[in-house]
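Here's what a typical entry looks like (DUF3313 domain-containing protein):
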Amino acid sequence: VTTAGPRSLIFRGAITGVDTSKEGLQFYEVVPVALVVAGTQMATGHRTMDTRLYFEGELIDAATNKPVIKVVRQGEGKDLNNESTPMAFENIKQVIDDMATDATMFDVNKK
C-alpha cells in the first residue's frame, strides 16, 4: 500500500527488550532441605533461567498522524536450563507468534 485510505491505521511496533533472570523459589522449595538445594543452585549458576520478551506497539490514525492506542506487553518464553545456556530464537519464538496473533485479532470495538 502506498497511500492510506479513509479510516486507515498505521501499525508501528518493536521488540524493545529480551532478558533472562533466575527462576524464583517454588512453593515446595521452602522446606529447609529444598531451600538449601535451591540456594546452592542459584549460587553456582545451575538454577533454571526465565526468559522474557518486551514489546511496544501503537496504532496511528493515518489521516491525523495521531496515536489511537499504545500498548506495552511482556511475554515469557521457554526456560533455559541454567545461566550458561545461550538464549536462542527458539526460546522466544512462541511469544513472538502469540503477540502477532493478538495484534491481528485486536478489535477496537470490544471493551
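The beta strands are 9-22, 49-61, 67-76.

More examples are in the samples folder.
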